[in-house]
Amino acid sequence: MLKPESLTERQALQVEPMPRVLLRLTLSCLLLIAVALLLVYQLTWRPPAHELLTASCSTAVQAPKLVPGQALKVMTWNIQYLAGKRYVFWYDMADGSGPDERPTPEDLAYNLDEVARVIRDEQPDIVLLQGVDDGAKNSDYQDQQKLLQERLADLYPCSTQAFYWKAEFVPSPHIWGSVGRKLTTLSRFHIDSAERLQLPVPDANIISRQFQPKNALLVSYLPLRDGGKLAVINTHLATAKPGDGTAQKQIAATETLLDKLEGGGTPWLIGGDFNLLPLGQYQRLPEQQRISYATDSELHALWEKYPMIPNNTESSGTDRSQWLTHFPNDSRINGPDRTVDYLFYSPSLKRVSARVRRDDTLLISDHLPVIGRFLLPVLP
């Protein structure tokens, strides 16, 4: 005679499969997480803290070496990936509400020719460009450095480059594809070597951080004919967010490099989009435009030590309109209203002249080119 099951035994039989279901669900979730992390790892870019780069010099044109004591003309310009000024992009608004996501192919082509025109007209010895796209979906996967060099090959036999934003896929509805943005340095003079130095990145969770820009210093070393070298540094610092500490950290890392070069007797200059205001401009901005800046500019750590173009007297003085370098993509703003692009240089170099080219560049980019002319030091 079969013994009837007790209530406890029947309950145990009913409950027993549940741990197996939970185990399968847990394992499935862990597998999905692992696949997602692997996908993020494969789609994104993690540059080393220090990377040696190869300078590219044409064999068709023999690039000369710099001569101690010679004049040197340098231009820095954030070309905004050749997008032009007919847009208010989603990222131009603090809340991400800008209506535009990408420029048209026609605007990319027009602004490519315009940037080449300005460079050819100025013919600086060294050109420091920021916001140069390479392989980005929203700029039609162009290699913009290559396109520019094809138009300027007779002027600049040497170049260096370093990415500061790169990913095969960014899962943002405004991008939903690849990004690639780099610093480009063009030189009429020979470049021996170069290196990329990673700057501190903004705080973010481990996933978001993989898709964000990774700002850097591109350092190019130009040999002097009688020995020694000139260090030329190109950079684009992160968009400032007061209180998060990123600007201070990036400026501190930059200062460390400049101090090292200066202490070692190596003449240097640095140019780029620093995304920081000079002394006195914060108070002149409308309140809604101050959100990205600190009352006390983090840039003071550099200007207190080293000469800059434009200096604080120029950028905040009676003729300050001549030294404004940024024309934000914002329908409320009808012209350049702040300075965020600069050239800093070693005290061993002598400033001869400087200016911001404004009249024919207002519609090419949201930044204006800053141009400086220097005398290199004479070796003892």
UniProtKB/TrEMBL annotation:
The reply on keyword Transcription regulation is no
Q: Which UniProt keywords apply?
A: Endonuclease, Exonuclease, Hydrolase, Membrane, Nuclease, Transmembrane, Transmembrane helix
Q: Name the GO cellular-component terms.
A: membrane
- Protein name per its UniProtKB record: Endonuclease/exonuclease/phosphatase protein
Q: Which GO terms describe its biological process?
A: GPI anchor biosynthetic process
**InterPro entries in the record:** Endo/exonu/phosph_ase_sf, Endo/exonuclease/phosphatase, GPI-anchor_lipid_remodeler
Describe the location of the Endonuclease/exonuclease/phosphatase domain by residue ranges: 75-367
TM annotation in the entry: 21-41
This protein's source sits in the domain of life called Bacteria
Output the Gene Ontology terms for molecular function: endonuclease activity; exonuclease activity
